[in-house]
Structure formats: structure tokens, C-alpha cells
Amino acid sequence: MTYLQEKFCLPVLLLVTCTDRRTARWATGPFTCEARGWTIHSTHPLVLGPDNVPKITDRRTAARNPAMAVFSAITHGRDPEAPAILEATAGALKAMENSQAAEHLGGLLEIGLGDTPARETWRELMGFTNFFPGRGTMFEEVYLDGEAKGEAKGEARAILRFLEARGITVPEEARERITGCTDLDLLSRWLDRTPHVQCVHDLFAEEPEDTDAASA
């Protein structure tokens, strides 16, 4: 925090969101950095939890302060009223007309809900939200799936071009098998074989270990 403030010449605030009161009490700190009894740095986070964040279940209230609505949904994610809070928040973010701020707030909320049932409710309400790498949001799952499919298509195209360059005939059935494959490891094995096969059927020949496993 000290480094960020020095680098950007702006005030830095550590914001913590908690879904239970016990954790919220602990998170208020202070957290000190000491050396031989001398306090070098002391951090006092701003903690948002069930006790100091209101339950926003009204869409108009959520629309006036969508960021607070998001924090309300996170901190009360395990509360019986969570679905109502999420519905109000979803309405507020959708009213922002797909702005970047709405996407980031939606992604932040999905992460903040963790593995609670409320997260699935949020996904149903919003479809998918912003891409936060490594956080497992729905957008990320869709994105990575698309990346894998795109890589598979690239491998398939490379196999077909290599075979065609070598003058090897590729029947339609074999072409569909190659282009329809999404197993990257299998596609890589096929690609490695393309310089050596005499016909397209050699491409699909079982490897020795596969044959041994089948016999066993």
C-alpha cells in the first residue's frame, strides 16, 4: 500500500468484503509490521460486512448506487434475501447499457460470491460477466473453451495442409474426423505423423501402447 501511494501519488485504501461477522471483526485489524518492537507500518482496512452494509433489494436504490448494490450482494451472499438483492443488482447493471463499469462490477460480484448457491443465481440472471483471469468466472470459462476450440481448429488445418502438400488424398470422412476432433493431444500426435504416413489411414493407426492396452 505504501509503495502504491508513493508510485501513483494517490491515497490507497484496502477494502475487504466479508460474508460473516466473525471474519469481518478480525479483518478490521490493525495489521502491523514491526521490527524489534518498533512499528514500521500499520494497516487499517475498510471492512464491509453484514453488519455495516444494507440489504439492497429495491431496483431503484440499486440503480442509484450500483457499486454499493454489488457490495450488498457480496456481503449478504449467504443471506435468505440474497436472491432479491441479486435481482435488484442485476436490474441496475443491465440498465447501465453494457458499459465497461457494469461488466467489471458484474465480474467482481461473481468472484465475491465464491462457491455459494447465490453465484449460480447470479449466473442465471446475468449470463456471463467480465473476464478476470484465473478466477473461474463464466466469461473466463467460455473464453478458455473458445481458445481451446480455436487451437484445435488450427491443428486440424495444419494436418490437412501438410497431407495435401504431400499429395496424400484425404477423403471427406477422414477430413470430417480431423476437423471435428477437439482433443489437442490426439491432434498433436496426428500432426507429428503427417511427414511419415503413406495414406491418410496411417494417420489414425493405433499406437503400440494403445494396442497393448486394448489387448489387456
Report what the structure shows.
The chain has 216 residues and is mainly alpha-helical. The chain folds into three domains: 2-48, no CATH class; 59-130, no CATH class; 141-215, no CATH class. It has helices at 2-8, 21-27, 59-64, 66-75, 82-94, 100-112, 117-126, 138-165, 172-179, 184-193, 200-203, 208-215; strands at 15-17, 31-35, 38-43, 46-48. The strands form two sheets. Strands 1-4 form a two-stranded parallel ribbon. The protein has a two-stranded antiparallel ribbon with strand order 2-3. Helix 4 (66-75) runs parallel beside helix 6 (100-112) and helix 6 (100-112) runs antiparallel to helix 7 (117-126). The relative contact order is 0.07. The model is unreliable at 208-216 (pLDDT under 50).
